[in-house]
Amino acid sequence: MTDIPTLANFIDNAFVAADASAETLAVTTPHTGAVIAHVPLSPASAVDAAVASAKQAFDAWSQQTLKTRASTLLRLLVVLQAHASELAQLIVREHGKTLAEAHGDVAKGLETLEYAVGLPQLCSGHAQQVSGGVSCRDERVALGVVCGIVPFNFPLMVPFWTIPLALGMGNTYVLKPSEKCPLTMLRVAELAGQVLPPGVLNLVNGGQRVAEMLVDHADTRAVAFVGSSAVARMVHVRASVAGKRVVALGGAKNHLVALPDCDVEMAARDIVVSFTGCAGQRCMAASVLLVVGEQPELLRRVVERARQLMPGTTEPQAMGPVIDQAAFDRITSAIEHAETADHAEVLLDGRRTASFLEKRRDTGGFWLGPTVLLHRAAGDQAVRQEVFGPVLSVLQCRDLDHALAVENSSAYGNAACVYTRQGALAEYFERRVGAAMVGVNVGVPVPREPFSFGGTKDSRFGYGDITGDAALDFFSFRRKVTTKWGEPSEKSWMH
Ligand code: NAD
């Protein structure tokens, strides 16, 4: 017990222990269920200290030129690149991803930082003479202290969807990491302290209450939230009522549509990668496969490929565990409900896959194999609700319009993909699909910078998108400056 650390917060470039009386939660490693740290549910005094530090740092940081801030971010990039392996190992430990997935988590996070290093090339404003002797120009101005509240499933990448761009634009930041995976970002904050001035990036540990305090705090100006839809909706309302700028990304139910002309081998491979990657715990993961027409060979290959995955961390065909016991129970009861209440046929049953059962028994970890369900009705619970695990719900559709109708009726609107060899069919799909991020033969269609990330409907509440060029608007306002120098040579509306 004694060698299990209780995590500190990171405020003003220093570790600060949360109040000794603060309640803590156990952080477990999903591989074995063992406790690896205790995370404090920080009190209001810690939130106040973090926000005060960020507020204090804001003036000097925002008054630097964009080029100066970008060069600091470049130094941050170099530091984090040098520690990429260490950070990936932390992600494996606290999240349970495979090593390759954890390296991907780090690499994708650092891509946003690379983009932010280029902000001086992206942020010039407009200037124009608008009247005799009178000019207008605009410039982007930082908002102040902004906060980020993030989910467990990408311990580094999701915080980095916003941190580099928020800082690049001149804001200072307070992050609340997920209480399930707090270790990675705590180490990142410590490393960032080597190059960022004190107070520019602060981290406060906690759960719902700390998140609410950050949203409510009189000195936070904007909220970037990523998590489940129920919480995203609440955070959006709460921040909006407080008059804050807020973007709140929620959950997902992503549909993949396999048309009869698709490349069966390529589609099968891509579908399995999409629904089993990170043990299905990706907001971009395939969740519903809509098979247009009879395609027994596609289904056979999907099931066979998924069956070959083995529980593990480093093997080429490894799949990691799900995050915790609660997730394991939620996912297995969704499968149970599909089988017994909705009478779905279980084509592959991850609850009973021998290798995963054995691993679970030997380690005590939250190992659950990939599962494929063949449904009879689009109204089935597992087809409608987010499961957030390695479960694929398959539904047969008469034609593309039928598949589009099912996709469009989803409450969520994060991602969708069509598998086809025909451009005209892909375009037909793109124009009618309800999701905001669309793939053509790409089952995880994440838009990369300069494109922005964000869904629609219950997958995104609030203002704009996250990452890419939309982030420039989110993390700044435009100051319009009108100037007149000397007497104008002609009369205008100004005089
Ligand atoms: P979650 O909603 O349980 O928690 C997310 C964050 O919100 C955590 O930091 C948590 O402490 C905090 N929180 C919990 N209750 C809160 C409340 N009432 N008010 C304010 N903050 C609160 O999500 P999770 O289980 O950590 O992550 C999985 C979910 O995140 C899935 O639904 C997944 O689809 C979604 N997700 C979405 C995206 C996206 O881009 N749309 C990306 C990643 C994950």
From TrEMBL:
The organism's place on the tree of life at top rank:
Eukaryota
Record domain Aldehyde dehydrogenase: where: 20-476
Q: Which SUPFAM superfamilies match?
A: ALDH-like
Protein name per the record: Aldehyde dehydrogenase domain-containing protein
Name one molecular function that GO assigns to this entry: methylmalonate-semialdehyde dehydrogenase (acylating, NAD) activity
Pfam families tied to this protein: Aldedh
The biological processes this protein is annotated with in GO are:
L-valine catabolic process; thymine catabolic process
